[in-house]
Amino acid sequence: METASSKTETTSYPATSAGARRAGMTEEQWRAAIKFDGNDVGWVIMSIGMAIGAGIVFLPVQVGLMGLWVFLLSSVIGYPAMYLFQRLFINTLAESPECKDYPSVITGYLGKNWGILLGALYFVMLVIWMFVYSTAITNDSASYLQTFGVTDGLLSENPFYGLILICALVAISSRGEQLLFKLSSFMVMTKLLVVAALGLSMIGMWHLYNVGALPPAGRLIKEAIITLPFTLTSILFIQTLSPMVISYRSRNQNREVARHKALRAMNIAFGVLFCTVFFYAISFTLAMGHDEAVKAYEQNISALAIAAKFFPGGWVTVVSVMLNIFAVMTAFFGVYLGFREATQGIVMNILQRMIPVEKSMKNGYKTAL
């Protein structure tokens, strides 16, 4: 007769994963904590939306100018470097004792003085991008309204038009992450599908002679280094990483859970971007070659205009307008999230210098921000 003790000995338990051990959880608790949900989907979409800007339509022309071999070497160096840098950035934020905003993270590691200095630099960077995207949204929307006959003149010449437009976008952005996720989902998926469709549409025009000869080592390395900044920024979305990690830390008391979810969202976004953008650039390069890329560069035409030569029709105008508007708006939403938390961090750093932390929290300064 089998005893209770023998049953206990033969019962198999799932091995505890490394993440569960670091988090101090059982495997069941760990799997429940890291379950992929709508919030994860939202941050993946926001990251992809931040990376795919309006300039993506000029990427094939730039790759064609430099040559396929140069782009491949630049990609071998640049993409892994960008991935490791963004991974390090997430780990640094996730492991911070206090993770409420970027300046507070730096303060936790290096002190208040470095916190406000680096926080201010981070703030200035985001302010510049806020102005860039605000100007782009104002000018582009006014131009499209005039082009399609909605208005007689350019509304961008009226300062109140830009002010009202940006105030409306800020009001939408301030309503919270979930609203931004819902608004961005359609726009980001549209951008991603357009880029993927453009790459697929060129497969029928591929020619192996467009690969070109391998250039001399010295020239190859030199041009790869020149191309490197361009390659790095083609799938860069570091602007959304700080608000993403802070959001995960606020939702999860366990740092390891927040770190795991942030890294997973980054990995998915990076993987989708790499596969889509890399294939898109390679596909156009194999289809048009160096000479056509030079001609396109001189005429300042984009990948959409190049595709229109092979697939005539009025779809190019519609797609280009839609891609441009969606790219600028999703990028604005992503930058605004970082701008908001950077501003909050700097204000709190200054307040804590003048008022004790306990008193400032008691008086509700943090809530007011």
UniProtKB/TrEMBL annotation:
Name of the gene this protein is made from: sdaC_3
Bias type Polar residues, positions: 1-15
Organism: Proteus mirabilis
UniProt record, GO biological process: amino acid transmembrane transport
Segments passing through the bilayer: 41-61, 67-85, 114-138, 158-176, 188-209, 224-246, 267-288, 315-339
Stated name of the protein: Serine transporter
Protein localization: Cell inner membrane
Residue segments, region Disordered: 1-24
PANTHER family reported in the protein's UniProt record: SERINE TRANSPORTER, SERINE TRANSPORTER-RELATED
Tree of life domain: Bacteria
Membrane topology value: Multi-pass membrane protein
InterPro entries linked: Amino_acid_transport_2
GO cellular component, as recorded: plasma membrane
Primary site of residence: membrane
Keywords in alphabetical order: Cell inner membrane, Cell membrane, Membrane, Transmembrane, Transmembrane helix, Transport
